[in-house]
Each structure stands twice: as C-alpha cells, then as structure tokens.
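We emphasize that the prediction below concerns an isolated chain of 477 residues; any contacts that depend on oligomerization or on bound cofactors are therefore not represented. The input was used exactly as deposited, without trimming of termini.
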Amino acid sequence: MFALLVFTICLGLPVLSQTPLPAASPADRALARDIFKQLIEINTTDTPRGNVTTATEAMRKRFLDAGFAPEDVHLLGPDARKMNLVVRYRAAGHPTEKPVLFLCHIDVVEALRSDWNTDPFEFVEKDGYFYGRGTQDMKDSDAALVATFLRLHSEGYKPRRDLILALTADEEGGKFNGPKWLLENRRDLVDAAFVINPDAGGIELDHGRAVVADVEATEKVYADFQVTAVNPGGHSSRPRPDNAIYELTAALNKLAAYSFPFEMNEVTRTYFQNLAKEETGQSAADMRAILATPPDMAAAARLGAEPSFNSNFRTTCVATRLSGGHANNALPQTAQANVNCRIFPGHSPEEIRQQLAALFNDSKLTVKYVSDAGVVSDIAPDRKAMQPPAPIKEVFGPLTRITQAIWPGVPVTPVMENGASDSIYFAQAGIPCYGYSAIALERDDDRAHGQDERLPVDSYWKSLDFFYSFAKALGGE
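Result of the prediction step, given as a token string:
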C-alpha cells in the first residue's frame, strides 16, 4: 500500500515542462521508418508461415553492420523459429549501476488477408496512418527502440550504465515464451535494475486531445478455457434441440449476457481519480460517482459502454474460437469453444473456471483450462497478479518530464493493464517492471489484434523522440 501511495503522489500531479526535445532528423526518421516497415513485413505469428527468428536475425544484422560487438548481440532460444535477440549497449568504463532493460516482444497475432482492406503483412502508409499487423502491438516500439539504439551508437553516446534491448518470442501465445526462457536459462543477459516494457501504457487521446498518460502498475491475469459439449448426435433429418452445437450456443449466450461483478482496486481507483480531473460533463460526474461508497452502479453502467472502461471494472471473458460437428448431414456430437478471460487481480484462473461452470450449469458441458503451450487440464493454476512495483524516481522523473515536453500538461497516472504482458515474468523474478509505450491513440481506435490495425504516423515520430531522450536519461552520460 505504501508503494502505491508514493506511486500516486509521484504520478498523479501534472508537471509542466517547456524544455524542447532533440527531434529526430530526416535521416533518423527514414531509418526508423525502414526498420518499422521491415518488421511489419516479416510474419512473426505462431503459425506455420510465421517465423520470429527471421525478424530477430534481420535486426541482429542491423546491429552488427552498425558496429556493435558480436559478443554484445545475442541470438538465442529453445527453438530455431523462436530465437530471441538480446543487445547490450555498453557503458563507458566500469559501471556501478545495474543495467536498464527495454523489453519488447516481436511476435504478433495471426491476421487473415481476407479480413483486412490491406495486406496485414504489407506496410502501408495512407491518410496519416501506418497500416499492418503489429503497428500497434508492438512492432512500433520494437522499431523505435532499435532505431534509438542505432542512433545513440552512431552519435558515440557513452552511458554510465549498460542499456539492454530484448526482442522476444511468444508473448502472444506459443510454447517458447522468450522472457520466461531467458530468465530461466540466461538471466545474466537480461538481469537489470528495472525493466521498461512498451507493451503497456501510453497516451490516451480524446478527439486529438491528450487526456492522460498511462503507466502500467499492475495487470490482469490471462487465461484460456476450453468449453466442450458432447452429444450422441444422430441423423440430421431428425433434428432435436439437445445437439452439441445448440448446447454450446446456449452456454455462450449466457456468457454474452453476463457481467462479472464490479470491482476496483487502488490502481484503478487512482486512475479514475486522476482521469475525472481531465474529463467534463457526464463522464466526469460518473467517474466521481463510481468512487463513492457505495459506488453508483448506474454510473458504472454508463461508463462501461466504453470497452476500455468496462475492462477496468471487472473480469471479462469472451468466446474467441468455435468448432463443431463432423459431417454436413449429421447432428453434431461435439462442439467446442475457446473462452478467453482477463481476470481482475485477486482472483485465480481456477476460481474463474469454476464460476464459468456454475454459470453454464449444464452437466453435458466441461470447462477445462488451456495453458499457453496448448496443454488442456481439468484444473487451472492459482496464478497471482502482478503487484504494483515501488516507483523509482530515476524512471518517473524523466518519464514525466519527457512526456510533458511532447504533450504539455498531460497527467501521468498508474493504470491496470486490461490485457496481460511479459512484465509478469520479471515481476515474479523480483525485477521492477514499468509498462509505458509513449504511443498516443484515440480511445476508440484500439485495433491491436483486430482488423486493419493502424498507427498514426505522427504518433510514431513522437514515440521515436520520446525513446531517444528517455534512453539517454536512464543511461546517464
């Protein structure tokens, strides 16, 4: 509680800054755009046509061609298609401080050409946006940080402490999670005083106005559940309402109509306290109303119409995949759905598995847990949520100053990440991890994992300027 209180004090108040940042030159921008394009056009999905190593090898070549020592550029991992890249930018002399680690996953979720208006694995610039799978999650930050390390090196920058960049596999799913493997097998390469993870946080825009800068303080727990209906089936000429697809559909309709209970914790409470100061009208009044004791549920319902707000209030579960039946002329004997849940801190996957089974209330259904590696089990783990790390002045001082140099007056506030990230592995290893991307997006234009994923061109350039100044501030001179 003390750490969060300090976190709130450090982040809840805007600190104006008029100090101009060193902007990237046209040549710097051209390089950063070229890296971004190259990464988008390499398919790094966890599918037969995807290959993470192709991307990490391409970035490894850029670092070696730029003059980084081979012993500081490591390509490694447990699978030939899932190799991680760890690059160390050496400090001058003999540093007395532990390194800073920038953690960036380089894999992306699958995207089908038939679903998109552009080819998801072609980098397209149009109408002020960059389009392509990974433009929001998170090849934008991958590219910006690769470009930053290369720019610093070309300028002869000599930090007081080592800076590390890790481009890793399987954050989006798969058997070979990079951070987990690195911590278990080569912790020496990624051991750090703290971690900056751009897979969370960023600038919330409301019709172009920067409203708040989010820094991840905790995150939900990710869990997949396999819901299966089994039935004897029969001839399709004799339909009946108890076939497997109907039973599964009935269960999923219950889920669609259900809302998990409203909850708040210290992080989400602080977030809405700070956001209420920036909002106006009904939204501001509703934010103050949910902070009351007891919270106003009508206000929560109005705010919950915005998906990002609703996800801050409760556990959420949604069906993401369906399969069923075995022949066109037969009643289905088996139907199956994957239900993906993002679990509010304080609850375990096993608790939610049992709640889903109780909600469905059907003895013909089973609800089983599916691990990241695809292993199905009857019981889910008792996984703990990430605890808020204590704020570190050397992180939040420059983070706030540089953020406000780009977006003057925007308040910096702790948030609960509604998804999940690889921060959890470092938190479990005792290394503080802070989620912040410096990417500015409209609240209603979050297309990560979705159709026609895109990033405002201007947002990419601003993140590039942020990471250059932020890396130098963390590294010292």
